[in-house]
Model the fold of this input.
Amino acid sequence: MAKPIPILLQTTIESIEDDWHIGRFSLLREYLSGLTDDDGTPPFTVDARDRGSPGQPDPILASLDESDYRELWLFAADTGNGLTEKDCGGITRFRRRGGGLLVTRDHMHLGMSVCSLGGVGAAHHFHSKNPEPDPAASGQCGSLLCSKLSSRARRA
Done:
């Protein structure tokens, strides 16, 4: 019998009733916790929590690499202050030791703190932080429109 995989579902905000606190993801937690394999054994143990006080290292994330968790599902709902440098360090070390990450965020500025995650943050683009490159200017776009825009940009 395989040992269940410990998963941490975590937000990057404190528990605020009218915001994207971890309670909003209760159906996901219940679904994952309720799964069973062919033997009736649950394949996962699931903990769900909001971050600790903002501006201070989160007591779990900052030392995630020293935990028994094998997966972190991070729901970034902050506006830039959801992860401290120590939190990012703990998550980065967790990933480097083989921990699995699912990092998700919303549009505009929600979840902007994920840009600081080593090896992962560069994949996230925001209007004011790590903006998407202009494909027409870089010549990296394969569409006809981008090709025309790129050739116009080179002529200018």
In short: The chain has a mean pLDDT of 78. Residues 5-130 form a domain with the Rossmann fold fold (CATH 3.40.50).
